[in-house]
Amino acid sequence: MSNTNIKKVRTSDLELKDRLVSIQRVTKVTKGGRTFSFSAIVVVGNENGVVGYGLGKASEVTSAIAKGVEDAKKNLVKIPVINGTIPHKQEFRYDGSLVMIRPAAPGTGIIAGGAMRAVLESVGVKNVLAKSKGSSNPHNLVKATIGALCELRDAYSVARLRGIPMSQVFNG
């Protein structure tokens, strides 16, 4: 996700809600037997264009989730959301996961599954069509979805980037 459009956000003045995407029990085999611990993927967002994800690992479930939330708060980005949907369609690949997101008409809802739904709800998107292909690994799906959202640009940022007034953006 090496993109110049990514805008980092401070957590001080945001009310963030966290969503647990996935939790897995992992095992480390030692000469004394098996040691179990937990790995949690968490997505946080203010449901108004700010989202972040984090990974937490600990020997207890609650500790892993808390660590994931703290990690997610360090990786917040600002996403353009216009009238409850995204500005344009976007595809993004991360490792084996390919995600495709498209804007939708009001009343459509979030048509997405699992990990993608958690990310899109945290951003605050109300109407979107989404599809994932390839790997359904939650880690890769979350990273691919956030990568696709980070590449979105609204008309205001395009006008500013080109140095032209808003009226000329669509009249090219």
How are the SSEs ordered, and which strands pair?
Elements: E1 17-30, E2 33-45, E3 50-58, H1 61-73, E4 77-78, E5 90-94, E6 97-103, E7 110-111, H2 114-123, E8 128-134, H3 138-150, H4 155-162
Parallel strand pairs: 7-8
Antiparallel strand pairs: 1-2, 2-3, 3-4, 5-6, 6-8
Description:
- It is built from 4 helices and 8 strands, in the order E-E-E-H-E-E-E-E-H-E-H-H.
- It has helices at residues 61-73, 114-123, 138-150, 155-162; strands at 17-30, 33-45, 50-58, 77-78, 90-94, 97-103, 110-111, 128-134.
- Helix 2 (114-123) runs parallel beside helix 3.
Attribute tags:
172 residues; alpha+beta; four-stranded antiparallel sheet; four-stranded mixed sheet; 8 strands; 26% helix; elongated
Rounded mean pLDDT is: 90
Number of helices: 4
The oligomerization state is single chain
Proportion in β-strands = 25-35%
Q: Could you give the distance between the termini?
A: 29 Å
The side-by-side strand order for the widest beta sheet comes to 1-2-3-4
Q: What is the percent of helical residues?
A: 25-40%
User: What does the overall shape look like?
Assistant: elongated
Derived structural class: alpha+beta
Kindly provide the radius of gyration, computed on alpha-carbon positions and rounded to a whole number of angstroms: 18 Å
- Give a count of the beta strands, DSSP E runs of length 2 or more: 8
Q: Major sheet: size, sense and barrel closure?
A: 4 strands, antiparallel
Return residue spans where pLDDT drops below 50 for at least 5 consecutive residues. Answer: none
- Please provide the ordered H/E string of secondary-structure elements: EEEHEEEEHEHH
